[in-house]
Specification:
The chain has 393 residues and is α/β, with parallel strands linked by helices. The protein has helices spanning 5-22, 57-67, 93-99, 119-126, 139-147, 149-157, 190-201, 210-216, 267-275, 293-302, 314-322, 352-358; strands at 34-39, 42-48, 76-79, 104-107, 130-133, 161-168, 173-175, 205-209, 233-237, 257-261, 279-282, 285-287, 290-291, 307-310, 328-333, 343-344, 360-368, 376-383. Bound molecules: NADP nicotinamide-adenine-dinucleotide phosphate.
């Protein structure tokens, strides 16, 4: 039985999205894109963009079709992001599709770059290619946009997209007042902690402050086991380079540890950290003991970092929120209290509940602990700055 044309469009666009999803972690600093070339019910070629392989998704699919001996003349290209129309590391994909005489192009979403948005589609249209753009409110279009939140934000604002994540007790605390021994105190269950690993996997960098390093001794690594083209860059804000040389985070074998510090840090501390393989960058302060966060994000942008996951303590959370440098928030609420003498979510600032009120595109998910207990965590996520705000209607 043959599918209706609109069902076919959904099916092949969903497949293109699946290909894009599998390339997460391997496309940044470029967008994550998948493409399927099909005629009728038959797939002729497909692929996703991997930054190191250079070719954009459309070219990967065209090459696969050619290698299988398929002509794509008169075929439909299903692409999760508008084909590009400009010369970058590769030639324009719109030109390549036109040269191969495809007759139709179905896209999930337009290019987020306001300077080039619509130009790929315009080029295709002028060449006589029929264009179909997904309904922006459809689940496919929303997911295609969300896959590229970081690319969309950074191309428009020239700084990385910042996600602030915190595990919070029901009374708004992120840690107990006292702990029996140094090291992490797990507030959430194993399933929520696994979910956090996925947040790390989709990020180019993770950032925290020296307070968390001293209190929790975290490793700050991506432990999903999924492939990524460059290690997760672990960034520590440490004005005086107080991070102990035997801290877990200081174990840097792959050039993945960066300290932002200030002129106050001693050159001896700098030399010792460098000897251990860390990178050190001195930045200005916005106030005593506070590394200027805009400078930190700008320095990360210059390193081709498109997304930063902030897993900070109470002072880092407060500073990022106060500077209006948080774009997306992910909170994992536990079912128990830590008590009013606990460490607050953001010292002197918001309760997590006030913050939640300000989020757009709010999503709520229940995450059972998956350890046999009857407890569950609630994941709340949403945007303070939605990079696709202009695209959703
Ligand atoms: N539940 C969770 O999700 C979670 C996550 C992380 C941490 N925590 C908890 O949070 C607590 C630690 O909180 P914390 O506030 O001490 O640690 P923090 O927020 O990670 O680090 C704060 C320190 O970072 C340095 N810093 C440099 N520039 C800064 C800036 N612009 N803004 C803010 N800080 C800057 C300052 O120390 P210098 O002046 O020395 O540079 C400051 O004292 C621990 O109890 C930990 O368990 C909970």
């Amino acid at each position: 039985m043959s599918l209706l044309p609109q069902d076919q469009d959904q099916r092949f666009l969903a497949r293109a999205l699946e290909l894009a999803r599998a390339a997460v972690g391997r496309a940044s600093p470029n967008p994550t894109v998948g493409c399927v070339l099909a005629r009728g019910n038959t797939v002729l070629g497909e692929g996703a963009h991997l930054y190191d392989a250079r070719d954009h998704a459309e070219i990967v699919a065209l090459k696969q079709a050619a290698s299988l001996g398929h002509s794509v003349r008169g075929a439909t290209a299903y692409v999760t992001l508008e084909p590009c129309a400009h010369h970058g590391r590769t030639g324009p994909c719109a030109d390549a599709l036109i040269a191969e005489k495809i007759s139709r192009c179905v896209i999930a979403t337009a290019d987020p770059n306001p300077m080039v948005r619509g130009q790929g589609l315009a080029k295709l249209r002028v060449a006589g290619v029929e264009i179909e753009v997904s309904d922006p409110a459809s689940a496919l279009a929303i997911e295609a946009r969300r896959l590229n939140d970081a690319f969309a934000y950074s191309i428009q604002h020239h700084r990385p997209f910042v996600t602030l994540k915190a595990a919070v007790s029901i009374d708004g605390m992120i840690a107990p007042a006292h702990r029996s021994r140094p090291g992490p105190v797990w507030i959430t269950g194993p399933a929520a902690r696994k979910d956090v690993q996925n947040l790390r996997h989709v990020s180019d960098a993770i950032l925290t402050g020296i307070g968390t390093v001293l209190a929790d001794n975290p490793a700050l690594t991506d432990r999903t086991g999924l492939p990524r083209r460059r290690p997760l860059l672990r960034v520590i804000l440490d004005s005086n380079l107080r991070t102990p040389l035997d801290a877990q985070v200081a174990d840097s074998i792959s050039n993945d540890l960066l300290f932002f510090t200030t002129e106050h840090a001693s050159s001896q501390a700098e030399s010792l950290q460098r000897l251990q393989g860390a990178q050190i960058q001195r930045l200005p302060e916005s106030a005593p003991g506070q590394i200027d966060l805009a400078s930190a994000l700008s320095a990360l942008h210059q390193r081709d970092i498109r997304s930063v996951l902030v897993e900070g303590g109470t002072f880092i959370n407060a500073s990022f929120l106060q500077s209006d440098l948080v774009d997306r928030v992910v909170l994992y609420f536990t079912e128990f209290e830590l008590g009013l003498d606990g460490v607050p979510f953001a010292r002197g600032l918001h309760s997590p509940y006030e913050l939640q009120e300000r989020l757009t595109s709010l999503q709520r998910k229940e995450i059972p602990h998956s350890d046999g207990s009857r407890l569950e965590d609630i994941r709340i996520s949403g945007y303070l700055h939605d990079p696709w705000a202009d695209f959703s209607s």
